[in-house]
Amino acid sequence: MNYSESLAYLASTRILGSRLGLENIGILLKYLDDPQKDLSFIHVTGTNGKGSTIAFLHSILSQTYTIGTFTSPAIDLINEQIRINDSIISDIDFARIATQVAQKREQMILDGHAAPTEFECMTTMAFLYFKENQCDLCLLEVGMGGDTDATNIIDTSVLSIITSISLDHADYLGHTLKEITDHKAGIIKENGHVLTYPQEKEVMKVLTHVCDEKKACLYIPDLKPELTGHSLDHLTFSYRNFTNCSIHLTGLYQMYNASLAIEACFILRQLGWPVSDTQIRTGLQITRWTGRFEVIRKDPLILVDGSHNSQGALKLADTLSIHFPDQKVILVIGVLKDKDYETMTDCLVPHAKSIYTISVPNPRSLSAVELKKVLEKKTTVDIYACNSLEQAVNLSLGAAAKEDVILFCGSLYSIGQIKTLLLR
Description:
The protein is of the alpha/beta class and 424 residues long. The chain folds into 2 domains: 3-286, 3-Layer(aba) Sandwich (UDP-N-acetylmuramoyl-L-alanine:D-glutamate ligase); 294-423, Protein-Tyrosine Phosphatase, Chain A (Alpha-Beta Complex), CATH 3.90.190.20.
């Protein structure tokens, strides 16, 4: 297959949706000689902060090591999910490896096995590419949950990282923190090393129990970074012996993700993976991560943020209060109907001077019209239901004065298309 054909093939697998379980990807990988068994991993799960924490670690570690990174979902281009050091997988390599996976997938189906999903195929492609390029370490982001996520097919990990856990994906993972944590704790390996963001007592009880059962070493840092400066270009904070660290991810919550990455580097040192203080500081400063309180344009100021659950919306609201304490924003928002959009909008509506609702380009989207009805019960500001993302961009820009702030938010699935429209 060429690149276009490989994209079309992967798109054809989306009809299968999300399917948790390790049997299928295990069979697919066996057909390809189990490339994951020759790799070393840092495995990351959680509800919020996975991608940003991985982005910080990627920038820090790739100064010394060959680092493969697999994240999801894609924002701008599907290739960006698979990268080694500073480069995403090329179109040629993407097509070549997708062809290998597709051939084995079709053989699986002929042999009577269930068809692997798109995410299982992409995970397999990442393993093949990382092995081919002899990566020293691979940063692996869980897609959903942990225990039955396709990425958990790995047997061991150098370090398991668990970022902030809150209620999300209830239909798949459960309706309580305990049920959700039970799934996420599934990435903890026998005799492994586990770093966790400080969590609710209910969450910590589960993590401590699982680590005890598996004789895993659990690290719980006192994660209290101190904000020392902020602008829309950078944020500075101090944490432990790192004073005035500068990062370009300017959401207030990012200093916590950066601090967790610092703690991960301390553990890696203990485990025989040297990382210097200079590399940590430099890595934090050069990190970029799209769609997280990202400035797209100025005059008017346009921001996009992919926060897509109640905890993320609360942190986004805190960030708005820090950067715009005396100003309300033009809010353009779309959400998925299986999210806690009531709580999400409760957090964000008080910051809005007007609101444009959109339908997210995903089958699970709450429609723009339905979202408008939800919001009308919460506020008296003007609300407009848009027929398309393009209309939302045009209407919000048309209504904005030079000094206004426009914020596009609510889902990662709409960020890529919105950025394309804005940058056009």
